[in-house]
Write a structure and sequence with these properties.
The protein is mostly helical. It has 13 helices and no strands. α4 runs antiparallel to α10 and α11 crosses α13. The protein is globular, with a radius of gyration of 23 Å.
Length: 253
């Protein structure tokens, strides 16, 4: 009897019905998030934001061997940091015209590489990071790129956002949510984080705690384009936003 009684109490506790037992709390999720997401999908239906036409997924040579393609994806991600898609796309086109491979970059002197990628943001630092990372890829990975986030973020000039995007685009693997400034800003405006976050990596962790995994691949593309066209960093176009009535940060007119 005793064992049965303990068992029944344990089951009741798991269901949150035992005497004195604290009920298990439901998983937190933001208010109205599903409707907000559907409306953002509607606003992004035309796929005409800069990220759609000149984003990293458009910067590599799709006809190149898989290993070369993956290297080009990683390089475009490194160039894209704090740089507009249009500038990154143009720099990648100039690089590809010279035959963009691990070996071609290693043979290129720093001055030439700098002239080609200018005016991407922090281009001098990126010249250094690109040369260092490319040498590591040649020596350690046989000219390919790592296939894990843990290894990718160890490369000079590669952060978590780039690593998750590289896994997605280059390896077709969803390892996490890629959070850039747009995703970070919009997630806080919509209150898709339980409490305000200061840094993109905090936002990534907060989003992954509740957002269904089958949406992780889509969310970066959706929110980046939305942030480029409507939910701007300064003077967001709230009057044009379908979420105006259910957005906590909306400027209602």
């Amino acid at each position: 009897r005793g064992s049965r009684r303990r068992k029944s109490v344990a089951i009741a506790y798991e269901a949150g019905q035992g005497d004195g037992a604290e009920p298990r709390r439901p998983r937190w999720e933001p208010r109205d998030w599903r409707e907000q997401l559907e409306r953002i999908r509607e606003m992004r239906r035309s796929r005409d934001a800069p990220v759609d036409e000149m984003g990293v997924q458009k910067c590599y040579d799709s006809s190149a061997p898989p290993q070369v393609m993956r290297y080009q994806v990683l390089l475009s991600l490194m160039l894209s940091s704090q740089t507009k898609d249009q500038v990154t796309s143009a720099a990648m086109l100039r690089l590809r015209r010279r035959g963009l491979t691990v070996d071609s970059v290693l043979q290129m002197d720093d001055e030439t590489l700098g002239q080609i990628i200018y005016p991407v943001g922090f281009w001098r630092n990126k010249v250094k990071y690109i040369k260092q990372t490319t040498a590591i890829l040649k020596q350690k990975y046989g000219g390919d790129i790592p296939s894990t986030v843990e290894e990718l973020v160890q490369l000079p000039g590669v952060g978590p956002k780039m690593a998750h995007l590289a896994m997605n685009i280059a390896w077709d693997s969803v390892s996490g949510i890629a959070v850039d400034t747009h995703v970070h800003r919009i997630s806080n405006r919509l209150q898709w984080v339980k409490k305000e976050t200061k840094y993109p990596e905090e936002t990534r962790v907060a989003l992954e705690e509740w957002l269904p995994r089958d949406l992780w691949r889509e969310i970066n593309w959706l929110l980046v384009g939305f942030g480029q066209q409507t939910c701007l960093p300064v003077n967001p176009r709230c009057s044009q936003c379908l979420n105006q009535d259910i957005c906590p940060a909306a400027r209602r007119v």
